Amino acid sequence: MAKLYLHIGTHKTGTSAIQSFLYKKEKELRQENLVVLKKLGSPFHLEMRECTKVSEKLIADYKDFFNTHAKRRDQNYFYSNEEFSGN
Are strands 76-80 and 3-7 parallel, antiparallel or unpaired? Predict the structure, then answer.
């Protein structure tokens, strides 16, 4: 089963540097069975950015979205996005 690792970086905490490093090492990480996702194209980004408290529905929606878009179930995925920190 595919695993998704999330990096929930708040703004101004080095998230862009982490993302840049991961993108540069993308080839090596794929050899280790880890796919770095650059953008999921999720319809939930705006809702996530405006979120001020934990939303179990939003978490479930994101999980369903990922499960339908994971190309291979035998790979692991890493996704970093500042919007996961919400407001």
Answer: parallel
CA distance 71 to 18: 24
Q: How far is residue 68's CA from residue 71's CA, in Å, rounded to a whole number?
A: 8
Phi, psi angle pair for 35, to nearest 5°: -100, 125
CA–CA separation, 54 and 67 (whole Å): 21
* Helix or strand holding residue 60 (H, E): helix 56-69
Q: What is the spatial distance between Cα 15 and Cα 9, in angstroms, rounded to a whole number?
A: 5
At 51 the pLDDT is: 75
- Distance in angstroms (rounded) separating the CA atoms of residues 83 and 72: 25
pLDDT in tens, 2-47: 788 888 877 788 888 998 999 999 999 999 999 888 766 666 667 7
pLDDT in the model for residue 55: 83
